[in-house]
Amino acid sequence: MARARIEALSRDEEDLIHVKSLELLETTGVRIRSDAVLDMLSGFGAEVDRRRQVALLPESVVIEALGKASREFTLCGREKDADVSMPSQGLPHLTTDGLTLYVKDHRSGEDRSASRDDFSQFARLADALDQIDLFWPIVTISDVPAHSHNLYELWESFRSCRLHVQCDCMSGEDARRQMNLASLVVGGDEELGKRPVFSCAIDPVAPLSFDGGPAEAQVAFAKAGVPVLCHSMSLSGLSSPVTVAGTLTNVHAENLASLVISQAARPGAPHIYGSSSTPIDMRTGSIDYTAPEGLLISASAGQLARRLGRPCTVSDWGAGAKGLGIRTSFTELAAHLGTVFAGSDIVPGVGGLDDAKGCSLAQMVIDSNLWDGFKAFMRDFTVSEETVALDVVREVGHGNSFLMHEHTARKFREELAIHDEDKLSLEATLSASMAPRAAAIADEVLRSHNPPALDRDVARDGEALLAEYSRGG
Q1: Which of 283, 33, 29 is CA-nearest to residue 171?
Q2: Rounded to the nearest 10 degrees, what angle do helices 149-160 and 172-186 cross at?
Q3: Domain ranges for the chain
Q4: CATH second-level architecture of 66-378?
Q5: What per-residue confidence (pLDDT) applies to 291?
Q6: Using one digit for the tens of pLDDT, what is the confidence trace for 413-461?
Q7: Secondary structure of the chain: what % helix, strand, coil (to 5)?
């Protein structure tokens, strides 16, 4: 199958990044602020400096981990028809933005904190939009105890949508609590291992550092068969070298180290290679998702993941970088959206605003609509004796038209994308004019779409666990 894909690195450059990443892990290592995880890695072959909390990972340890890791697995939905495969078959799986801080109310226009009800609306809309395949809890719920907000976000996701949920976790204890909630949904701990209805994004602290709580959560998830995404956020010029090559080496090294942690915990544990890495804006110091170099980093990370045979999340999606609608220049938009050609299996970002600080129901509709139009660029095309169509060329003859030939009538819908003029009206660049219409679509969908409810006893038990965890701190 032929498919458009960006490859930024030559084979020699790819080899160099991989070799230097292995050298970095063996000579500099990774800091892991957990004695328990360091003890586990020591037993797996790492050289551990307990005073500095640094683990040196020899090449042989990394190779052993790569050999043990599962190359294919399923991210399960609450219902089987919502399951998605890793790696993806065909188009990437689209998901929402995650962990934003505020909601832009599409009715009043105000920016405000999110309630459980707000969160439920986002989850239900994600469930209803055909373009969205997974749900990353898009906003932090503010009207619950702060120490347990991620538990409420996971549970509200289960209550309000059928999709696989990708969450975040800050400690081993929280990991166990999240798995308790998920086990209620699937019918027990053993079933959760067979059908992991959620996964977790674990963020290394660039450069080359893992906080103790998230590292211990990763170990707990790996042992239970819950997939883990290494969400490397290497920011060129801030948390990684300012060079693209230096940033890529940090991304690759963090992913290899994360893979070692999972495989040391449980051979075969499902693990996703990940990067949301980009330069900072040197004028402001803020993250710059529209930097041209971000596209090169994504494309290169995709190559490095494929080199290892790893499913990956290395791209981003969404046009809400500067507010509701599409208010980004062509160059900035191309740099951001072009990352989908990196070969990523999951593409997050739908519904996000203001560089992932905020989110909007209307923006979810706009970004999903953009995906409908854009995915035509990512289709598979068959190259074969039949599609070369020499027999048709002979029939048409020299200098004649193919327009009236039956082959054209039979094949054009399969081979050529036809723009939907109505949907194109939601894509005007440097504009927020489409926002009212997108908001109306979101409201209509929410009025009519209600995913199947959880079993009454399961819902009751889940709320009881949340209440217990909220009291316990």
Answers
A1: 33
A2: 20
A3: 11-64, 66-378, 385-415
A4: Alpha-Beta Barrel (3.20)
A5: 93
A6: 888 888 888 888 888 888 999 999 999 999 999 999 999 999 999 999 9
A7: 50, 15, 35
